[in-house]
Amino acid sequence: MHDPAPSAAAHPLSHPRRPSVRGTTPVLALALAAALTACGASDTEAPATPAGLTAQAGSATTVHVMWQSPAPSDGVTSFLVFQADRLVRELPADKTMTDITGLAPQTAYAFTVRARDAAGNTSPAGAAASATTPAAKAEDRLPPTAPLRTEGLALGPTSARLTWAASTDDTGVTGYDVYQGDARIHTVGPGLTSTVLEGLRPDSVYTFTVKARDGADNSSPAGPAADVTTPPGPGQRTGTAPEEFTATASPGAVTLSWTPPATGRETSEYELYVNGRPTTVIQFGAGAVPAGRAEHRLTVAEPPGTAWTVKLRARLPDGTWGAFSAEQRLVLRS
After folding, report:
1. Which of 207, 334, 211 is nearest to 276 (CA)?
2. Based on the number of CB atoms within 10 Å of its own CB, is 34 exposed (0-12), middle (13-18) or buried (19 or more)?
3. Which of 18, 207, 238, 318 has the smallest count of CB within 10 Å of its CB?
4. DSSP-H helix ranges across 14-140
């Protein structure tokens, strides 16, 4: 916003000149002067302290630490996790949880998290979250039983409540891990059989499972999956996800079937995700767009026994992608 600096030969002792505000109104002149001052000012304002900090022992040697991200306007680029006054993790801005490993059994630990922006400003630490690791039982090789029931309920466009049946273990359950697909997104203590999940996307389908964990870090098999559909946010369109999505494995192939979203027009293009990654785009040509339920057969080359999680979304009439279908799990067959 400044003029280029004058040459040293022409102005050996002068500073770069500000543009003249002559001829402007007093209000405009003051606004321009303020803008010019701000242009040269550096960012010295620290981000807000991350809220919602929790710490939960996952085993005799690990603690799971979670927090909420500050508002996007804070410009956070990383999070710093401290154990007491010692930095133990530095994570990118899209990560709001971490496992602290290598801890001692039967020991109390306190953790704080600070946010840092691109200018290097660091937030205050805020109140610490504490957790005590259980006793070590290295000889324990038996995992807990899987939760027998999982239910989900959307509480609004960005949150949902998940409940499950308690698991059992020969040495005691120390926590429950919530998974979205193959990614662990939340951990709660051993005495809890429900939790509220925040930060979800409006008008989206989520598939959650729960695993129990014991003091030796043995994890149970996943309990039954629970699908949760968040409602649209204010002013958002509805019904953009493919419904009643199924995936069936047969020798050398996978057959997908779904009901197209009711957009008022034909839906001819879908994007397929396998194991959380976009894999292919399914297109129906002119005259071949299904009027009712759609079906597509994939030929697979992966070896039998390979586990897949699959989901898909539709290209909407305005050219954007809609919400994801429910996620389906399957094992490839020979």
Report:
1. 207
2. exposed
3. 318
4. 26-40
The top-scoring range by mean pLDDT among 43-47, 58-62, 308-312 is 308-312
Closest listed residue to residue 106, CA positions, set 131, 140, 143: 131
Tokens 């999940």 locate to 197
Give, in degrees to the nearest 5, the angle at Cα 222 between 99 and 226: 105
In what order do the strands lie in the sheet containing 194-197? 150-156, 159-164, 194-197
User: pLDDT grade, residue 180 (50/70/90)?
Assistant: confident
Whether the predicted pLDDT of 4 surpasses 50 = no
Tokens of 189: 């203590």
Q: Sign of the CA dihedral 190, 194, 199, 204?
A: positive
Residue matched to tokens 């020969």: 170
* Calpha distance 172→214 (Å, rounded): 6
Contacting residues for 327 by C-beta, under 8 A, at least 6 apart: 181, 205, 207, 225, 309, 310, 311
Amino acid, res. 117: D
Check if the beta carbon of residue 289 is closer than 8 Å to that of residue 327. no
Other CB atoms within 10 Å distance of the CB of residue 312:
28
Task: Over range 13-28, report the average pLDDT.
Answer: 39
Q: pLDDT tens digit string along 189-216?
A: 888 999 998 878 788 888 899 999 988 8
Task: Give the pTM.
Answer: 0.61
The label of the residue with tokens 């071949």 reads 288
Tens of pLDDT, residues 104-127? 999 999 999 999 998 899 999 889
Maximum Cα–Cα distance across the chain: 85
Q: In DSSP terms, which residues pair with 162 in a beta bridge?
A: 152, 195
What is the Cα–Cα distance from 1 to 194, expressed in whole angstroms? Answer: 54
CB neighbour class for 231 (10 Å; exposed up to 12, middle 13-18, buried from 19): middle
Q: How far lies 124's CA from each of 71, 134, 150, 252, 265, in Å?
A: 15, 30, 38, 56, 52
